[in-house]
Design brief:
heterodimer; A: about 90 residues; alpha+beta; Alpha-Beta Plaits; 3-stranded antiparallel beta sheet; two-stranded antiparallel sheet; 5 strands; about 15% helix; B: alpha/beta; Nucleotidyltransferase, domain 5; 6-stranded mixed beta sheet; about 35% helix; binds iron/sulfur cluster
């Protein structure tokens, strides 16, 4: 399942996508995020599955701002959450 | 409940009970309670068949709204709450349903409910709720394969429509029809945020736009906004809409126009999709021995 959290506004599209089919629920992304954007939540889509990462309700509508420090303009560096994910399960739309 | 004529936004609360089914014939009775930011529904199902439900306005207190919705659904059924084997809470206030056995996100519940309501051919579901809007993709069993939730602001939602009805002094249930009583389709209002859309609408009225034209422009703006969400997630046939806005033809027809596809139609009440999904999950959990 591809879970997209975020929004679209006049300035662009800001979505964090988590591919739960790739994710192994290791929690690394949650641990490395400096701003508490991610959290582990019960997987309501598959009751047999472990907790999965998600963007917190509090942050969903402002990730453009919260994630900004992780996204320097030089574009060379990868944000910590994406860097930490060995399964390539996280994508950002911007 | 007292209803003042000036409350244009106010929609009628209601409950329903199956005229044929009797609760004593059921083996497994489950329920779903969907506490949204604007409306709350309680749905009672017996062996996966719709038995009774209610649809009410959400009060300031979620636990109380949940209790009221359930009491009203059960009224006249001759059945009491303790006969229900499993209750699933869903929606915005899902963790605040005091008698729920489990809380499940509304995305999962809406997909499951849409599958029940519109049949297994549904692949893309648009849930237009009171305060947010979700585009969901699912498989033939109603299991979610992708979703996109937009948490930015209340335009394109039930609450936005209520604010708008009040501003124009038009009853909320008439908005859809009125939006087509125009000579030609106006450009959509440019703001998608309720606060700004309201200011923009007032401005258009002052400029002498007829009410219906302003309504059309607002419906078009809502439609366009959700269209971009679905476009981002990717559209797969068949397409269905759940939630209160599914009852607003002014928005629905414009969404269909933009997507170039017709939404599936149903005789059932689109507002109960989330609670139905919850009740069906409850049944599955009981059958799997997790209840
Ligand atoms: S970009 Fe930075 S702030 Fe945003 S989720 Fe990733 S680690 Fe957290
Ligand atoms: S780091 Fe990747 S694999 Fe680990 S929980 Fe996060 S998304 Fe899943």
């Amino acid at each position: 399942m591809k879970a997209n959290y975020g929004y679209k506004d006049g300035s662009g599209e800001y979505f964090i996508t988590i591919d739960t089919d790739k994710c192994n629920c290791c929690e690394e992304c949650v641990k490395v995020c400096p701003a508490g954007v991610l959290e582990m939540v019960p997987n309501d889509f598959d009751i047999e599955a472990d907790d999965m990462p998600a963007v917190t309700e509090k942050e969903r509508w402002k990730i453009k701002y919260t994630c900004a420090p992780c996204k320097p303009v030089d574009k060379e560096s990868t944000p910590p959450c994406i860097e930490a994910c060995k399964e390539d399960a996280i994508e950002h739309s911007w | 409940m007292e209803k003042k004529e000036s409350e244009y936004w106010r929609w009628k609360e209601y409950n329903w009970k199956s005229p044929e089914l009797n609760w004593e014939d059921f083996e497994i009775i489950t329920a779903g309670v969907d506490i949204g930011s604007v409306s709350s529904q309680a749905v009672v199902m017996g062996d996966g068949e719709l038995f009774a439900y209610s649809n009410m306005r959400t009060g300031s207190d979620s636990p109380e709204s949940a209790r009221n919705a359930m009491d009203w659904a059960l009224k006249d059924t001759g059945m009491s709450l303790d006969k229900i084997r499993y209750v699933v809470g869903t929606g915005y206030g899902r963790v605040n349903v005091p008698f729920a056995n489990k809380a499940i996100t509304e995305i999962a519940c809406h997909a499951r409910g849409a599958n029940w309501m519109y049949g297994p051919s549904v692949r893309t579901v648009l849930d237009m709720g009171g305060q947010d809007c979700k585009a969901i993709r699912c498989d033939e069993r109603g299991k979610v394969t992708a979703f996109l939730m937009n948490d930015k602001c209340a335009a394109g939602t039930g609450r936005g429509m209520e604010v708008f009805a009040d501003l124009l002094g038009v009853h909320i249930q008439d908005i859809g029809e009125l939006s087509f009583e125009i000579d030609e389709e106006p450009p959509e209002v440019s703001s998608t945020c309720v606060v700004f859309a309201k200011a923009e609408a007032s401005q258009l009225l002052r400029e002498g736009w007829p009410k219906n034209k302003v309504i059309a422009a607002y419906c078009a703006a809502m439609a366009h906004r959700v269209f971009t969400l679905i476009e981002r997630l990717g559209m797969e046939k068949e397409f269905a809409i759940t939630g209160g806005i599914a009852k607003n033809v002014g928005v629905v027809k414009r969404i269909e126009r933009e997507l170039k596809i017709e939404a599936l139609k149903t005789e059932k009440d689109t507002q109960i999709a989330g609670a139905v999904g919850g009740a069906l999950f409850g049944k599955t959990l009981v059958e799997k021995g997790k209840g």
